[in-house]
Design goal:
340 residues, alpha+beta, Structural Genomics Hypothetical 15.5 Kd Protein In mrcA-pckA Intergenic Region, Chain A, Pseudouridine synthase, 3 domains, nine-stranded mixed β-sheet, four-stranded antiparallel β-sheet
């Protein structure tokens, strides 16, 4: 029986690997994996377990195995992960700047930065490897990437074209010497004109597709966001967020944590009316805003870094995309016409 021994088959490739955290309540491994793997069905996971492809601490387990704290859960399959099979694709990319070391790209919303589960083509990386041959590969096998922005966030991203540029830029992100400013439209009236949000950001214990803020203890990673109010529209506020650290979903989690979820951020609950009146007319107005801006209102507007070769500090700015501009214009008009 395979069940009792670790699988030692060289032909299996690791597709997913998760370590259960300290506070993990006993949970069936199929349910545990459902929380992590986007686009996975329970049936698929159960089939994988049946075939001996779900390992816990290097032993294959059945679907009803209960995951405990610190368990290492892996899904191994006979084919390599798709992101190792990168295909060059002729995708239009908005290149703001390019030289022999770096490329600065203005990513449109809806474009995934790199291939991953459920998105194996049409990503920024697929387009980049079509544009440039021999992009250097980072520790996660992701060509050229030293940072990334979420699929539905638009804005600036720097990509390294050489191994040296990649190491140099990665160190800048690690040392927090880069400049990253985002524009966000958030629910509610942000009372202070400016402020700083601090609190570790880590995967939510309730919803694995969200990040959460853990103000106390060691859970999550240290995260700092500075914000400044740019414009107020009665029930929503336009803010600039300056990242000191760059955690996954940092701005989205931090703003929600202080009670100002991003406008139309579906994953964090910002895609419903969180502030405002009960008038049907208002509901109609907000729905129209959601139609104009069908994603979270977040744009990576400014990016600054030291050029790996010249040592010069370079700063790039991008225009706000049309969907955000459209929603802002609606809110401006609304505010003008509805003096409370």
């Amino acid at each position: 029986m395979v069940e009792d021994q670790g699988i030692e088959n060289e032909d299996l490739y690791e597709h997913f690997r998760y370590v259960a955290h300290e506070g993990q309540e006993p949970l069936r491994v199929d349910k545990f994996l459902m929380n992590f793997i986007e686009n996975a069905t329970r049936n698929k996971i159960q089939q994988a377990a049946k075939a001996g492809n779900v390992l816990v601490n290097e032993k294959s387990v059945k679907s009803n195995y209960k995951v405990k704290p610190n368990d290492v859960v892996r899904v191994v399959l006979t084919h390599p992960p798709h992101e190792n099979l990168l295909v060059a694709e002729d995708i239009p990319i908005d290149i703001i700047y390019e030289d022999s070391d770096v490329i600065v790209v203005n990513k449109s919303s809806g474009m995934v930065v790199h291939p991953g589960h459920g998105n194996y083509s049409g990503t920024l990386v697929n387009g980049l490897i079509h544009h440039i041959e021999n992009l250097p590969v980072n520790s996660n096998e992701r060509p050229g990437l030293v940072h990334r922005i979420d699929k539905d966030t638009s804005g600036l991203l720097v990509v390294a074209k050489t191994e040296y540029a990649m190491a140099h830029l990665s160190k800048q992100f690690y040392d927090r010497t880069t400049e990253r400013r985002y524009i966000a439209l958030v629910w509610g009236n942000v009372e202070e004109d400016e402020g700083t949000i601090e609190g570790n950001v880590g995967r939510s214990l309730k919803n694995r597709l969200q990040m959460d803020v853990f103000p106390e203890g060691d859970f999550g990673k240290h995260a700092v966001t500075h914000f400044k109010v740019l414009e107020r529209f009665s029930y929503v506020t336009l803010v600039e967020c300056k990242l000191e650290t760059g955690r996954t979903h940092q701005i989205r989690a931090h703003m929600k944590y202080i009670g100002h979820t991003l406008f139309n951020d579906e994953r964090y609950g910002g895609d419903r009316i969180l502030k405002g009146t009960t008038f049907t007319k208002y509901k109609q107005f907000v729905d129209n805003c959601f139609k104009v801006l069908p994603r979270q209102a977040l744009h990576a507007k400014t990016l600054g870094f030291t050029h790996p070769k010249t040592g010069e500090f370079m700063q790039f700015n991008s225009e706000l995309p049309e969907d955000i501009v459209g929603a802002l214009n609606k809110w401006r008009n609304y505010t003008l016409n509805h003096h409370e």
